[in-house]
Design a protein that fits this description.
By secondary structure, the chain is an alpha/beta fold. It has 17 helices and 15 strands.
Length: 412
């Protein structure tokens, strides 16, 4: 297959699921995606033979290989398996030249999957959309139902495009507020309160990390994004990232205060491994569980490792990635990891112990056109004048402070 020829009907696919997305589906089995899968035609969804090889290797190394082999076979039944052929190999050189400075982990595999998606002219569906942001010709979507129903163009590294209209999916979903970005339990709580006040309002959230949320706003795929991106140069949160990711693309936003929260190490009850801080992550007897690339918590960890001169390669489990604080806590609670960096509320919810290390801002980034919209008016009203009941519910989660809630911190 030449670089300039379109894929044949035999080889075409609308969507290519990358390895991170397959793992997300296998681990979480999200029921909300069932309508999206049902709407697909046979052959629409594909998976690379490279990904299949990785999944098979993981199954063989698991505690129950026979059971996981069977589960993998069932998972792959409705998917087409496509080979990494000569056309994809030709594309790979172009992808590597676009990739930028990201190194280590599964970057090599991600580069090959990006090349394969380009060769197939397919939308790459991933749990780590920020990983592929530098590839201008690649269509990328995150792990929500809309990713399968309404693919969009990822053009984070191309010249600033004209500002598009609000996506049809956002217009059609009457009463649905779409939040994409960093995971936080107070965001779920906010959605519950809004829906209780007005059953016609639903807050739909997708956890793709802080950077992934800003990229979604850049592509006009969401009404707001939760973000806690720390700027090492200024010590501030989110402003620098907004100026890099949104401002050059004509995206004007309001940075709204939401909560301050405690981040630290989520550990087993009683701290059986006697973990005291970040330095202990490099101990050979400690199994760590990480957050996905682009997550603010992952960036915070990498910053702290650099400050201490610690090599991430020394951390057992650094390459294991989860898409939410709750998933990190679940891994520790299930005995699959000894610790993970996350929020106190996630540890509290799983009856785990917690070592507080940092206090950080978790803000909402809202494009100005949505900030002034009728749809977001109830959400903004609740944040500007939060009810005592809502504040008590936030406090009960553990590790939150709400003095900045509803304050406009910046207009950018």
């Amino acid at each position: 297959m030449s670089l300039n020829n379109p894929p044949s009907a035999e080889n075409s696919a609308r969507f290519l699921f990358d390895t991170s997305y397959c793992l997300y589906l296998i681990r979480t089995r999200p029921r909300q995606l069932l309508p999206a899968f049902t709407a697909l035609n046979p052959g629409d969804a594909a998976v690379s033979a490279l990904t299949v090889a990785v999944l098979q290797a993981r199954a063989e190394k698991s505690r129950n290989p026979a059971q996981n082999r069977l589960a993998l076979e069932r998972f792959l039944l409705p998917l087409r398996v496509v080979d990494f052929d000569a056309g994809a190999a030709q594309r790979l050189g172009q992808v590597i030249s676009w990739w930028g400075g990201q190194r280590g982990g599964d970057v090599g595999l991600a580069q090959m999957l990006a090349a394969q998606a380009l060769c197939l002219d397919a939308t790459l569906v991933t749990a780590e959309p920020a990983l592929y942001a530098a590839i201008p010709d690649l269509r990328v979507n995150g792990p929500d139902a809309a990713a399968l129903l309404e693919p969009t163009q990822a053009d984070a590294a191309s010249s600033p495009p004209a500002l598009p209209d609000v996506r049809p999916a956002l217009r059609r979903a009457r009463g649905a507020i779409v939040a994409v970005g960093s995971h936080d339990m107070t965001l779920d709580l906010l959605g519950d309160y809004l829906h209780a006040r007005d059953p016609n309002i639903t807050l739909v959230s997708a956890h793709v990390g802080s950077l992934g949320g800003l990229l979604a706003l850049q592509r006009n795929e969401a009404h707001l994004a939760g973000s806690h991106l720390f700027d090492e140069d200024t010590g501030d949160y989110n402003v620098g990232a907004i100026r890099r990711v949104l401002t050059p693309y004509g995206r004007h936003v309001v940075l709204l205060g939401f909560v301050d929260r405690r981040q630290g190490l989520i550990i087993a009850p009683g701290n059986p491994k006697n973990i005291t801080g970040i330095e202990d992550l490099a101990r050979p007897d400690i199994r760590y569980v990480n957050r996905q690339q682009g997550a603010g918590t992952r960036l915070l960890l990498d910053h702290e490792l650099r400050q201490r001169g610690l090599d991430a390669a020394r951390i057992r489990g650094y390459a294991r990635q989860e898409s939410s604080h709750a998933a990190v806590a679940a891994a520790v609670a299930g005995g699959d990891a000894d610790c993970g960096l996350g929020i106190q509320a996630a540890a509290h919810a799983q009856n785990l112990d917690f070592i507080p290390l940092f206090s950080e801002r978790y803000d909402l980034v809202i494009p100005v056109e949505h900030y002034a919209s009728e749809l977001l008016a109830p959400l903004l009203a609740l944040l500007r004048k939060p009810t005592p009941a809502f504040l008590r519910s936030v406090a009960a989660l553990g590790g939150y402070e709400t003095s900045r809630m509803g304050q406009v911190l910046a207009e950018l």
